[in-house]
Structure formats: structure tokens, C-alpha cells
Amino acid sequence: MQDQYERKIEYVRISLTDRCNLRCRYCMPEAGVAKMRHEDILTFAEILRIVQTLAALGVKKVRLTGGEPLVRRNIVELIHAIRQIPGIEQVVLTTNGVLLSAMGADLVRAGLTGLNISLDTLQPETFAEITRRPLFAQVQAGVEKMLSSGLRNIKFNCVPIYEVNDGEIPALAELAKDYPVKVRYIELMPIGCAYEVGYRGVPMAEVQARLEKTYGRLRPVGKKADPLQGPAEYYRLAGFAGQVGFIDAMEHKFCATCNRVRLTAEGFLKLCLNQKNGLNLRELLRNGISDDNLKLALRQAIYRKPAEHLFTDSENTARDSRAMYQVGG
Q1: What is the average pLDDT across 169-186?
Q2: What is the 3-state secondary structure (H, E, C) of 210-273?
Q3: Which candidate, 14, 106, 118, 201, has a CA 20 to 30 Å from the CA of 82?
Q4: Is the CB of residue 33 less than 8 Å from the CB of residue 39?
Q5: Contact of 244 with 221, CB cutoff 8 Å
Q6: How far apart are CA 120 and CA 143, in angstroms?
Q7: What percent of the chain has pLDDT over 70?
Q8: What average pLDDT is seen over the chain?
């Protein structure tokens, strides 16, 4: 399935909930969060019907996000069901890690093929400052459990922020020294709460320079072995079992190779992270759309996927002003 710019769309990110057990400062306000009603969120049956249709159109990878996806009840059963859909090759999950110690083994048994853990710091005090919750010990236990789980595709996501966690940039890379994991540094994006709380992201060129000062030359991994891999550019460091990667959507936008769409928890198909246009799938499903017409609606909507994001155009009315937890991270 291609869009109007001949990009091959093979990847859907599905937000299961807007709820989260943390309150990260760059993602959610501390209080006053208006939660969606249960009846407004897609049911698992509706999600599976959408994924089945997308798979028939060529989508091969599904990522489950939130909010925090592990707070959605029966997520293990959903993962198992998605894995049974013909054409779906990868089912991966992005989580803050708080519930991994309790749920990790079940996720792997259900067929999870990959895991991204958001981890901005290795210091309990800094963790509590960023997330507004003193839950670092739970995350640490979950990380340790997953590293010993046998799951091969584990990534850590870190957003470097000046005067918050930028002093830990080299220390976070150490996660990839003894384990074959990927530590990815992600540029702070101008979405939602980040700039409201005064955060300033560290440019990826500076992150790379700090890593090379500590560990030596970064060696490019080269051509991506996995065609479904995301936009990160990966490098090796001497003596490291794993890799480090960089995602800089602002400095080096990768819109020309974007292969994904997003499905929000309330069933809105977003064609671009930072734009409002898309398709209300919940309305179509609950009004009794046929399988053939659902496939047609999806194909037509995805064909109209925008050329690029609008991060640098603050005056454009097509921009989506909602916080990350509301659009699916």
C-alpha cells in the first residue's frame, strides 16, 4: 500500500489508552488530565478488525502504545490475537517499564517480538523529578527481567534534556555495553508539555560528540537489515555488545521515508504525528461499515498522507496541538 508520494506504508502504531501510571513532564500535566470515557475507546474486537484490514492492505508491523499500554486490561490476550493475523510479522510494544516485572514473561509468551522501554535516567531522584512518581525501582526490576527474558529486540528510548538528564548521556549508553540492545537518543519534539515546563532538548550532534568523547569513534552500522525498522540511525562503539541510535525529527526530518500511520485510543487514524487530518474509524465501525468499504476507506485515507510534519510551522492550522499521550506516543 502506497501513499500519494509513493511511500510504502507497512507500519501502524496503536494507542490502547490515554491513561498512564506516570506523569512525565514532557508528556502530561501534573493534574487536571481529562480521561476518555471507557465507551469512547476502541474495543479489542474493533482494534483487531482494523488490524486485519490493514494487514490485507500490506501493513506488517504493529506497535502498541499509550498512554501506558500495560495499564489496558487483557493486553496479553490482544497481543496473542494480533500475532495470529495473517500478514502481521511484528508486534512490538512501547512502555515506561513500571509493570514489566509483573507482566514481562506473559508478554513474551503471547508472542511479543520487540520492546521499547522509555528510560531517561538511571538515577532514582532524577526519575522522580521527570515522571513525578518515585517508581524507579519498579522500572529497574522490569528492565532486569526483560534483559534475561530471551527477547532479542529490546530498545531503550532516552530524551536528553539540558540540566535534567544530559549529564547521563554516556551512562545510559552503558546499557548497550554488556547486552545486545539498542539505546536510542530521541530529540525533544515541540509537542504538548515539553516547552511549557521549560525543557530544552540536547541536539543529536552534541549527544554524539559527548559519546565519542567518552567511548571513542561511533561507527555507522550501515544499511538497515530490517525494512520495517524505524527512522533511527544506528552506530557501534568499540567493546559494546549492542548499538546506540539517534532520532532527530527536527534537525534531519525523515518524512520522505515515513512508513507509518497512527491509530488513537478513540479510533482516529492519524496520518502524521503532528497533523490533525485523518479518518474517524470508530464512527465508521459503529455505524456498520462493511469489510470492503472499510478497506476502501483506509486505502483512500492513507493515500492522502501528508508530505511532512509541521513542527517548525507553529502558525499552520493543520498542526495537532494535543499532548503526546493524547495522540499515541
Answers
A1: 97
A2: HHHHHHCCCEECCCCCCCCCCCCEEEECCCCCCEEEEECCCCCCCHHHCCEEEECCCCEEECCC
A3: 118
A4: no
A5: no
A6: 13
A7: 90
A8: 91
**For the chain, how big is the Rg over CA atoms in Å?**
19
Q: How many Å apart are CA 233 and CA 247, to the nearest integer?
A: 7
Distances in whole angstroms, Cα of residue 150 to Cα of each of 84, 92, 112: 21, 15, 11
CATH H superfamily, domain 11-327: Aldolase class I (3.20.20.70)
Residue-wise burial string across 246-270, b where 16 or more C-beta atoms lie within 10 A, e elsewhere: bbbbeeeebeeebbbbbbbbbbbbb
Residue 140 near residue 96 (C-beta atoms within 8 A): no
**Locus of grid cell 567511548:** 215
CB 169 within 8 A of CB 209: no
Least confident of 3-7, 53-57, 238-242, 313-317: 313-317
pTM to 2 decimals?
0.92
Can you read off the three cell numbers belonging to residue 203?
Answer: 541536539
Task: Count the Cβ atoms, other than its own, within 10 Å of residue 107.
Answer: 24
Q: Answer whether residue 309 shows pLDDT above 80.
A: no
Is 90 exceeded by the pLDDT of residue 288?
A: yes
Q: What is the structure's pLDDT at 189?
A: 78
CB 62 within 8 A of CB 83: no
Distances (CA, A) of 328 to 189, 298, 304: 14, 19, 20
What's the distance, CA 274 to chain centroid?
Answer: 14
Closest CA to 270 of 304, 227, 247, 312: 304
Rounded CA separation 163/250 (Å) = 20
CA-based end-to-end distance of the chain: 23
Calculate the CA 327 to chain-centre distance: 11
- Specify whether the CB–CB gap between 304 and 4 falls below 8 A: yes
